[in-house]
Amino acid sequence: MVITLVLLWLFQEPTSAHMITVISSTNRPNSMSLVVAKAYREILTAHQQESQLLDLQDLPADFAGPQLFGAKSDVWRGIEERFIIGADKLVFVIPEYQGSFPGVLKSFLDGNAPRNFYQKKAAIVGVSDGRAGNLRGQDHLTGILHYLKMHVHFSKPKLSQINTLIDAHGQWLDPAAERMLGDHVMDFMSY
């Protein structure tokens, strides 16, 4: 019986590519996190990887109210089902806010049932105006994602002094940073 199951698994038809959700983890308008999230997704698309972008600006205005604790709207359920439940992997592009990551991301994570994240794979990309690329925020988010039973990729790009690396239109100013992000995408795709 076990041999039959193994053979069926080995010779099954290939399935479609797994869905990756790239999350711009702030609701700040015109953020560099959104620029980087779009750049990440463009690299995925160039490698024919199925992906989608969740911009936390698109959350319902009242999502942190009653929807956070049970009375979820159809819009909230749709976001949850499409971007979290419907994805195999999640990429969090997190800006540095007060030495961590934005509270809107924490509220978004809190508003989802923990089981929505179990056994999914995650990547974290830090973005900052300063020199550390949101190292502390990456560590903080890693601990939360581990608590949610997610597998967090070991490589966490730190895009420091972001305005010197990429412009507001997504044009790379630093080829080394572009290569670093491209290498990360390739590694995460095979993770």
Could you explain the architecture of this structure?
This protein is α/β, with parallel strands linked by helices. The protein has one domain (16-189): Flavodoxin domain (Rossmann fold, 3-Layer(aba) Sandwich), CATH 3.40.50.360. The protein contains six helices and six strands. It has helices at 2-10, 32-46, 74-85, 103-111, 135-147, 175-189; strands at residues 20-24, 51-55, 89-95, 121-127, 151-152, 158-159. Strands 1, 2, 3, 4, 5 and 6 form a six-stranded parallel beta sheet that branches. Strand 3, helix 4 (103-111) and strand 4 (121-127) form a beta-alpha-beta unit. Mean pLDDT is 89; it is low at 1-16.
Which fold does the CATH topology refer to? Answer: Rossmann fold
Q: What would you say the CATH architecture is? A: 3-Layer(aba) Sandwich
Q: How many helices?
A: 6
- Report low-confidence residues grouped into runs of 5 or more: 1-16
Q: How much is the average pLDDT?
A: 89
CATH class: Alpha Beta
Distance between the termini: 30 Å
Radius of gyration: 17 Å
